[in-house]
Design goal:
Oligomer: single chain
Number of domains: 2
CATH superfamily of the largest domain: Type I PLP-dependent aspartate aminotransferase-like (Major domain)
CATH topology of the largest domain: Aspartate Aminotransferase, domain 2
Number of strands: 15
Largest sheet: 7 strands, mixed
Strand content: 5-15%
Distance between the termini: 37 Å
CATH architecture of the largest domain: 3-Layer(aba) Sandwich
Order of helices and strands: HHEHHEHEHEEEHEHEHEEHHHEEHEEEH
């Protein structure tokens, strides 16, 4: 701290806060000459601007006074019913009163941290795991315990009674995981919910990317599989990746006792998510718009992913390994063991290329410093090829 004394005192919790690694890197990428593979941003080409604009117009014209008024904490009832029906179509028996609308899934993570975590509470996370969740949960001072992963993702066999004893929950992203891009197989999903049911550990299933599958076969969600075997599964969903992140709209699906307590937490947080936004999103999706919109987004992401994988096959050395996602936005790279992703980033930024080093994605275990995450969806084809050629050259030089 500076030599002078501040006229106020931050809480111990606030003093322990640190900035997001990705957000700090994104400051560098604001320079127009930088080719950025760092941000996990959806492509603006997939934003249905005209459709959303018309939805807001209709809501304000037809329901303007109610759209601009306070609303129930639980969320706009027709939107909650739509979410429940959407999940029932894919095999999860959900009722609308098990749905809570939130201001983006990041708020959901914060609320679940408040609900489940006391200082020192054991929390199980994949190694590596989503950085935004680690940042959110860390505010509540958990004791992270890492669950090992391999080329197939989270390893359910690692959920031993010893590792899981006293755990408040396990946090998992089964579809196109952030940061690895990996997807859990049906066999592993079934093993995960069965083991958590036996050990009485709630599962937080974070699934912002599940609708962005552009290859392979869709697997059933943990929510439906878990309810079939008596596991407690809390599912997080988001409209950020299927419509637009600026809407800041997501949802939590959970058993009623959990929803009831989350409603109390949300009342103390922001009363309710924006009524106007909820109504406009419902107006957008209610008549099946996503069925025609999402295939276009998937085709776009598939094309972008193909550009990057082709470039990596050509320009990366054989000593590096990387994932080949079937959906989502990310590719995870493992470098030779003696290389460090953070050091490589410093060299890459000098050449106007940015990515996210892998170390910050680890909690409860020593980080694998020889890893990095690449995002491909917002970069033009020629810039992908140029940036990957630069990175490949730097890795070879190292």
């Amino acid at each position: 701290m500076d030599s002078f004394t501040l006229p106020y005192t931050f809480s111990q919790r606030a003093q322990q806060l640190t900035s997001s690694t990705i957000r700090e890197i994104l400051k560098v990428t604001e320079r127009p000459e930088v080719i950025s593979f760092a941000g996990g941003l959806p492509s603006p080409k997939g934003f249905p601007v005209d459709v959303i604009n018309r939805a807001f117009d209709r809501v304000l014209q037809d329901k303007g006074t109610s759209a601009l008024q306070y609303g129930p904490t639980e969320g706009y009832a027709p939107l909650r019913a739509w979410v429940a029906e959407d999940l029932r179509r894919v095999g999860a028996n959900v009722s609308p009163d098990e749905v809570l609308i939130v201001s983006g899934s990041q708020q959901a993570l914060d609320m679940l941290g408040k609900l489940f975590i006391d200082p020192g509470s054991k929390v199980l996370v994949e190694a590596p795991s989503y950085l935004g969740a680690l940042q959110s949960f860390s505010l509540f001072e958990p004791n992270y315990v890492a669950v090992p992963t391999d080329e197939g993702g989270l390893m359910p066999d690692a959920l031993t009674p010893e590792r899981c004893a006293g755990a408040r929950f396990i946090y998992a992203l089964p579809n196109f995981q952030n940061p690895t891009g990996l997807t859990l197989s049906l066999e592993r999903r079934q093993a995960l919910v069965e083991r958590c049911a036996a050990l009485q550990i709630p599962i937080i299933e974070d699934d912002p990317y599940g609708d962005l599958r552009y290859a392979g076969k869709a697997e059933p969600g943990l929510l439906g599989l878990g309810r079939a075997v008596g596991a407690t599964v809390v599912r997080l969903g988001s409209f950020s990746k299927v419509l637009a992140p600026g809407l800041r709209l997501g949802y939590i699906v959970a058993p009623k006792p959990i929803i009831s307590k989350l409603v109390q937490i949300k009342q103390a947080t922001d009363l309710h998510t924006a009524t106007l936004t909820q109504m406009a999103v419902y107006e957008t999706v209610k008549d099946g718009f996503l069925a025609t919109h999402l295939p276009k987004v998937r085709d776009l992401y598939k094309e972008q992913c193909g550009y990057m994988l082709d470039a990596m096959d050509r320009d990366f050395p054989s000593t590096a390994r990387w994932t080949r996602p079937e959906g989502g936005m990310f590719i995870w790279v493992t470098l030779p063991g003696h290389l460090d992703g953070a050091q490589l980033l410093s060299q890459a930024i000098e050449r106007n290329v940015a990515f996210v080093p892998g170390a910050p994605f680890y909690a409860g275990v020593a980080p694998q410093n020889n890893t990095l995450r690449l995002s491909f969806v917002t970069v033009a084809e020629e810039k992908i090829r140029e940036g990957i050629a630069i990175l490949g050259g730097l890795i070879k030089e190292s």
